[in-house]
Write a structure and sequence with these properties.
This protein is an alpha+beta fold. The protein has helices spanning 18-21, 38-47, 58-61, 83-92, 104-111, 135-139, 176-192, 194-214, and strands at residues 80-82, 96-98, 117-122, 142-146, 152-157, 219-222, 225-228, 239-242, 247-249, 255-257. The N and C termini lie close together (7 Å).
């Protein structure tokens, strides 16, 4: 049986700002300027630890890609690490190394990113060290959808893998703890790297145009559940579609199970 859609639309004006709801506090830091420090990266790694779902979702798609999950296949997608992040990883493990472009298309990928960002590859899924996953691994397959003014509305599915990612149409299965940690990370990053906010404002604008042309609306994940986002500037109300299956954010800010079964 399909879930009912809440009839009354709600939105940023009717919901508490995410930064307030997450009880997000500005972290004291020793660094200055528009960059991340080694301590920042350590904090991010401590913050981003919850899996998107409570099992290895790579086992669902690897059978369709020669035994390798699509998101771990370097011929499909190449992660990007921040410069201090790669320094940290190189101190902690020999799992990661810089990706070497081979073709002109590869070089174009390198040229399209800021020198502060570095394409990296690991030894492969069979050698994965969970505590030493990159930020790109920890946040995949979602990124923030923002308004034109840069307010984060929630997380939206990253369509870089199209429908190959097993989670692409199973967003109700995403753990609320994963959503909370990701949104906490993005609020932190946008404050300390304003250029990242500008980047995702542009990405969000393009995504809304794509949905508007198709006559659809993007779906975003928030601690309260799944919402349908507006396509015009992202400034209109968010329409509630339903809860996340495993958890919701309690009034105290802790994660509480709600026991909703997938349909």
């Amino acid at each position: 049986m399909a879930r009912k859609v809440r009839p009354d639309p709600v939105g940023p004006g009717g919901l508490p700002p995410l930064s307030e709801q997450l009880q997000w506090r500005r972290r004291a830091r020793n660094g200055s300027g528009r960059s991340l420090t080694d301590e920042d990266v350590e904090w991010v790694y401590q913050t981003l630890h919850s899996p998107a779902v409570p099992f290895d979702c790579g086992t669902k798609c690897r059978e369709h890609n020669g035994g390798i999950p699509f998101c771990c296949d370097h011929s499909v997608a190449v992660p990007v690490a921040y410069e201090p992040e790669l320094r940290l990883l190189e101190r902690r493990t020999d799992l990661w190394h810089r990706w070497v472009p081979i073709s002109r298309m590869d070089q174009r990928m390198v040229d399209e990113v800021d020198p502060y960002n570095i394409h990296v590859v690991c030894k492969g899924v069979d050698h994965c060290e969970r505590d030493n996953r990159s930020i790109s691994c920890r946040i995949f397959p979602f990124y923030p959808l923002t308004t034109r003014s840069g307010e984060i509305l929630g997380l939206v599915y990253n369509e870089v893998l199209d429908s190959r990612c097993w989670l692409h149409d199973r967003q109700r299965m995403i753990a609320a703890s994963f959503v909370v940690e990701n949104l906490t990370f993005w609020h932190f990053l946008f404050e300390h790297l304003p250029e990242e906010r500008e980047l995702f404002v542009g990405i969000s604008t393009q995504l809304r145009r794509t949905h508007s042309t198709a006559g659809t609306k993007p779906q975003v994940l928030r601690p309260e559940g799944i919402f349908e986002a507006p396509t015009r500037d992202g400034e209109g109300p968010l329409r509630y579609l339903g809860p996340l299956e495993s958890h919701r954010l309690g009034l105290s800010g802790r994660m509480v199970p709600i026991g909703v079964t997938a349909q």
